[in-house]
Write a structure and sequence with these properties.
The complex is a heterodimer of chains A (231) and B (555). By secondary structure, chain A is α+β, with helices and mostly antiparallel strands. Helices cover 39% and strands 11% of the residues of chain A. Chain B is of the alpha/beta class. The chains are: A alpha+beta (231), B alpha/beta (555).
């Protein structure tokens, strides 16, 4: 099987390697013999460890992608960006207010955004990065939280930004502020926590804990199951 | 895009969809759930744990004589990476109250809780902070928050799903702490999915009898993990994070108490000594052992390091004969083989369908049962679909979700899944996915009690590395809950302990003793553990690496 695979040439940091044409960049690097320590993580597009930049022959553009989920192409020349130097400001989430003022204090560089949209073009998740930065500037934290929700913090936006904004950290702060202060709350949750503290469920649990295996089994298979669609 | 030869089968799925939709909408069961006998039969005949060679007796250590998963037994019968006599333990490189090994969900939750008790923490992690299976969980977290639900019903679901092997006091802690965890995460800024009135969105998972699954789209783990990481980084004065430094042995003292760990810098290859009054192992699971040759949904670093070092130090393991295969790993396209397709898909109404367009199992059986049923459909009944590379799988009908819940539902609730397949020109709002079970979770682990204590004083364990919470089969949404509940408990109890304990003289005597035990048992292995990382270098390349020296999988 191996011998029949179509092979192409890619350039890993300038060095040519023959790799399978249907490989991801990460698979191709491992095929070439790299034992990855940096630039590799979940391998499924959730962790942002494997940010990669590349060019293609005869094309002036600098492309971005995740090594775990971008396929190689013939003549591709690439380098990984396994780490993005970015300041992580320290803050006490309990003392912040969910308004634009917080961003003016913590991430003042956000207001240098020139709306060039390079961050959006760089995003391997295809998020509207510039739009969420602009939402922060307008003080629309709900919008910023929503648009940045699927961010995997790979950092490709930040290394391309001419205004030197660290977009992924800005988005994270917007989401935390929204989740903590602005999201409407579930009225039942506090009641449930209080009921547990008052011991309202303790007797029922103790009863199950004391049951022998056979009785427990019977109880389990007889339990009613709420329908899929609910009420 | 699916190859042409699959068109006929895809057409059959489409043809039966309308009828299946009507049944699902009626609120009746779409397929009868299995009874106890049917579950046992399908598991025994088709679950990979029951295949020949899947388990063997371990010859050394605290569980000596017990039958464990073969790959686990192999790992435990391995040599240390170090020679204890080379270390001067009187001169530690770092000293702290609490050492946390692992920077995933359990480790971060433990760190945040421990500092509330006023202790100093060092958190070490093999790769980056947050490099963990926690980051990858998609579907959700269980918590009994609805009025028609209760911690007791959650308890019954969890213990039934675990085949009644779960430790009762651990299940109690899991279900009773759950609503509080929801609140804690909300206060840290996690954006739970909500209905327009603000109430928490709840759906079903495999084996749940109430809709209890909370979620953050299908980035639940990432949303929680990034919040916890950000908060850990907000306390650099109290939590020192050391990345790219896995623990490769625990350190004990002459009173038999755990006293820290030897760590190894993956990049400079230096070893360092951390002396700590208490230690928490939060190293996660073992998917990268590729048990039974299965692909895995797991993170690159999931190599059971914590299990190995705790076992050498004398900790007991529980249920390490039981492996979780997630029912729905991707099988096509080849590039994403083994990747997780969240159970939330079935929670929202998605159905597993065979090549003839038939639903063949209740879509929300507990994971081991659902997996075994899918394997049966492919292997025994030959109703799977074969991919160009020779893999086999069944359809997971996602377009049905859109018809049940309205147009736009998938893009809103499953952006990660949509992206994952759209990259390969498969639109899951219009076409189903092709799936087969994938190695997913370590059901067992290091035995703990409800305070996360092991039988070694000063050694605590939380999250996937621990055993007992889930019995022999975990339900969806109980691992995200597990690492939060027990991460917090471990942080609190380990901090309390660290404030009282007096350490004796540090020693690595247990590593020497274990080596002698291997010799006495006649084990002729050149395996080294923890393996730290899997090795995916092709055999041909390895052959040409003539000057390379391999320590286990690492050059």
């Amino acid at each position: 099987m191996e011998a029949k695979r179509e092979m192409i040439t890619i350039y890993i940091m300038g060095k040519a390697y023959k790799v399978p044409a249907d490989a991801t960049i990460m698979g191709a690097m491992e095929y070439a013999g790299y034992q990855l320590k940096r630039g590799v993580g979940c391998r499924e597009g959730f962790c942002g460890a494997c940010a990669t930049v590349y060019r293609l022959p005869g094309d002036y553009k600098l492309y971005t992608g995740l090594a775990c989920s971008t396929l190689v192409r013939d003549g591709m020349y690439l380098a990984q960006i396994p780490f993005v130097p970015a300041d992580k400001p320290i803050y006490d989430i309990e003392k912040l207010e969910p308004t634009v003022i917080t961003f003016q204090k913590i991430y003042p560089e956000v207001f240098r955004c020139v709306a060039c949209n390079t961050c959006t073009k760089a995003c391997p998740q295809e998020l509207e990065v510039m739009d969420y930065i602009q939402a922060v500037i307008r003080g629309d934290i709900a919008k910023a939280a929503d648009l940045s929700f699927d961010c995997i913090c790979c950092g490709l936006c930040a290394i391309r930004c001419p205004a030197e904004i660290v977009q992924y950290n800005v988005g994270l702060l917007a989401r935390r502020l929204y989740g903590k202060y602005l999201n409407p709350k579930d009225k039942q949750l506090d009641r449930r926590i209080e009921d547990i503290k008052q011991g309202r469920f303790s007797k029922a649990i103790e009863e199950l804990m004391k049951m022998n295996r056979e009785d427990l089994r019977k109880r389990y298979y007889e339990r009613d199951i709420e329908s899929q669609v609910g009420d | 895009m699916y190859p042409e030869y699959m068109r006929e089968s895809l057409k059959k799925v489409e043809q039966t969809r309308q009828k299946r939709l009507e049944l699902a909408k009626s609120g009746k069961e779409v397929y009868p759930p299995m009874n106890a006998k049917e579950r046992e039969e399908v598991l025994y005949k088709f679950h990979p744990d029951y295949r020949e060679g899947a388990r063997r007796v371990v010859k050394v250590g605290p569980n000596k004589g017990e039958t464990l998963t073969t790959e686990v037994a192999d790992l435990l019968e391995s040599h240390s990476r170090i020679k204890p006599e080379q270390f001067d333990l009187t001169k530690p490189d770092y000293e702290t109250d609490l050492l946390i090994i692992g920077g995933g969900g359990a480790g971060c939750a433990a760190a945040l809780t421990a500092i509330e008790e006023g202790v100093k923490v060092i958190l070490i992690t093999k790769l980056r902070l947050g490099d963990a299976n926690s980051m990858m969980s998609q579907g959700g977290m269980q918590a009994a928050v609805n009025p028609n639900d209760s911690p007791a019903i959650h308890y019954l679901d969890a213990i039934g799903g675990g085949h009644f092997d779960n430790k009762p006091e651990l299940v109690k802690a899991l279900v009773m702490d759950a609503p509080e965890v929801v609140k804690w995460l909300e206060n840290l800024g996690v954006m739970w999915d909500r209905l327009p009135d603000g109430s928490l969105q709840t759906i079903h998972g495999g084996g749940t009898s109430r809709r209890r699954m909370l979620s953050c789209r299908d980035y639940t783990g990432a949303a929680i993990m990034r919040t916890l990481m950000d908060e850990v980084r907000n306390h650099p004065d109290k939590i020192k994070v050391i990345e790219f430094n896995p623990a490769i042995e625990l350190i004990m003292d002459d009173k038999g108490q755990c006293a820290g760990a030897v760590i190894y810098n993956l990049e400079t290859e230096e070893y360092s000594i951390i002396k700590a009054k208490a230690t928490i192992i939060a190293t996660g699971g073992y998917g990268r052992l590729h048990i039974r040759g299965f692909d895995t949904t797991n993170h690159y670093g999931a190599t059971a390091d914590g299990i190995v070092i705790a076992y050498r130090a004398g900790a007991n393991l529980l249920y390490m004969d039981s492996v979780q295969y997630h029912p729905t790993g991707a099988v096509y396209p080849e590039q994403i083989a083994g990747f997780l397709v969240t159970e939330k898909i079935r929670g929202a109404g998605g159905q597993p369908i065979n090549k003839d367009g038939e639903l063949f199992v209740f879509p929300r059986e507990p994971r081991d049962v659902e997996s075994a049923a899918i394997i049966r459909e492919c292997i025994e009944r030959k109703k799977g679909i074969v991919t160009p590379s020779g893999r086999v799988g069944v359809w997971l009908d996602s377009p049905l979700i859109e018809m049940l819940n309205g147009e736009g539902f998938i893009k809103k609730q499953f952006p990660a899944m949509y992206r994952q397949f759209y990259r390969y020109n498969i639109d899951i709002t219009k076409e189903p996915m092709l799936v087969f079970p994938s190695l997913h979770y370590q059901n067992g682990g290091i035995e703990i009690n409800e305070k996360c204590e092991t039988k070694i004083p000063g050694l605590y364990v939380a999250g996937e590395a621990s055993g007992g919470v889930h019995g022999r089969n975990r339900l969806m949404g109980n691992s995200v809950l597990d690492y939060n509940v027990f991460g917090r408990r471990a942080g609190r109890y380990a901090a309390e302990y660290a404030k009282k304990v007096k350490l004796g003289k540090l020693t690595l005597e247990h590593v020497k003793k274990y080596e002698e035990e291997l010799k006495e048992a006649g084990i002729q292995s050149n395996r080294i553990a923890p393996i730290l990382l899997p090795n995916y270098t092709p055999v041909e390349v390895r052959k040409r690496q003539l000057t390379a020296h391999y320590e286990g999988t690492l050059r």
